[in-house]
Amino acid sequence: MGNSTSPRLGARREFLRVGLAGFGTLSLPGLLRLRAEAATAAARERTAVIIVWLRGGCSHLDTYDPKPGISTDYRGPFSTIDTKTPGLRFSELLPRQAQISDKFAVLRSMAHTGGGHPAGSLQMLGGDPAAQDKVTPFYPDFMSVANFLRSGQPRNLPNYVGVNPITRYDSFTIAGSTYLGPGYEPFAVLGDPSQPNFSVPNIGLSNPDQAGRLQERIRLRKSFDDFRREADQSGVMAAMDQFETQALNLLTSTEAAKAFDLKQEDPQVRDRYGRNQWGQQCLMARRLVEAGVEIVTTTFDGPLCGRVQNWDDHAVNQHIFEALQFRMPTVDQAVTALIEDIYERGLDKRVLVVVTGEFGRTPRISHVASSGGGVASAPAGVVQPGRDHWPQANSMIWAGGGIRTGQVIGATNRHGEEPVDRRVGPQDFLATIYRHLGIDYERVTLPDLAGRPTPIVTDGKAIPELAATA
Fold it and tell me: Which of 81, 141, 209, 282 would bridge 126 by S-S if both were Cys, CB 3.0 to 4.6 A apart?
């Protein structure tokens, strides 16, 4: 007599085993201990972080760290403008942000060794020290770590949402929960939220009959006693119950439906952000943190970037200066609206906004034949300017989070080639975000697939200039 387990039940068991695989080395007490270690205070205002990710790497010389006094081999065609911060100048491509520079801090001295898009992204997002590209990450990204450490309470909203999430670069996976398990990856919002017919699926299921059927399916799953016994041996049944409860809450929650619904916004507010994909992504990010979501990422890529649909402004891809002129008005409007809105709504103490990519671009301009014509690129064969990968220096901005704003942290040399003051690295970047979220990055470790305790930050310190002020 053969195996009596039905194919459907067997497939379901296998699916759930895969979903739980990341917890194989963790007991439930271990989970609770880690989460307890993550919080520096039990009673604290709920914090949040929004990461605006410039996939491909933005030129620091043409935005936040211009070098007007150098030769045209480096400088580029853009002039510089005054900002609201005395002595701070930006590229002329950022007039709106220049007028609110008192509401954010500029960090000009980020540097690391990840010269490829995957390696640079893995270093910045997960602290992987390797300089070489990897097809998939080994270390979980900080978003998944924070989501894991913050899980344990019933929610009507997911705690980690990717609005056009940070996931891949071409065939490479650049972010993920890895050994924590897939339950801590983002709730992904895909598509263009500026489109009239845009909607987020699986949110706010209002039909009571459908909700009842979902409840019945969950009860049926709980009746599989043999699977329950198998799962309990690894000590994670409670975690699985938690995931199912959160999924049902999301499907039936009017609160969730409202948070994701941009039609709830005043049309003038939507106009302020820009009636385009990036503007509305930022608006949704603000709505989500306001509703209680703690981790939101949003990627600026796609058609609004130009021909190759990212920030990888090699000359072979596109004319970098035409590409910047094409995309920066949209970036400037969306980022400015997001930062202003955070402050105007009183969210600036608890919500931290960071705008960055994986690295900067080469200070020296290259000239190479285009591989094809399109938006911001000359026809194939036409020589045009570009800048290549440059992990040795990058600029980013930080807003909210209760930090002291209107400041510049660090400096690069005359040509923008490397930091000469306050050099910081990815581990410091991660530590700064963890500190804001109240996670004790100096003590918390996570067991990897082999059960080895792995620090969430290695040899990094939170950037003191970006600490919340009293």
Answer: 141
The two three-digit tokens of residue 56, written as one number: 């491909």
SS3 106: strand
- Give residue limits of the domains in the chain: 29-204+267-466, 206-252
C-beta separation of 407 from 19 below 8 A: no
Task: From 100, 104, 126, 129, select the one nearest 114 (Cα to Cα).
Answer: 129
Look at the block and give the residue holding tokens 């000590």: 235
pLDDT tens for 293-324 read: 999 999 999 999 999 999 999 999 999 999 99
Give the tens place of pLDDT for each residue, 139-170. 999 999 999 998 876 678 999 999 999 999 99
**Nearest alpha-carbon partner for 305 in 289, 291, 290, 319:** 319
**CATH fold group of domain 29-204+267-466:** Alkaline Phosphatase, subunit A (3.40.720)
Q: Which residues pair with 419 in a beta bridge?
A: 412
Q: Which residue is associated with the tokens 């919080």?
A: 39
What is d(CA 249, CA 159) in angstroms, rounded to the nearest whole number?
12
Give the whole-angstrom CA distance, residue 268 versus residue 277: 16
> Which spans in 53-106 are helix H?
72-75, 95-98
- Alpha-carbon distance 272 to 236, whole Å? 46
On whether the pTM is more than 0.90, the answer is no
Residues facing 394 on adjacent strands: 110
Residue 403 bridge partners (DSSP): 468
Closest CA to 338 of 328, 324, 352: 352
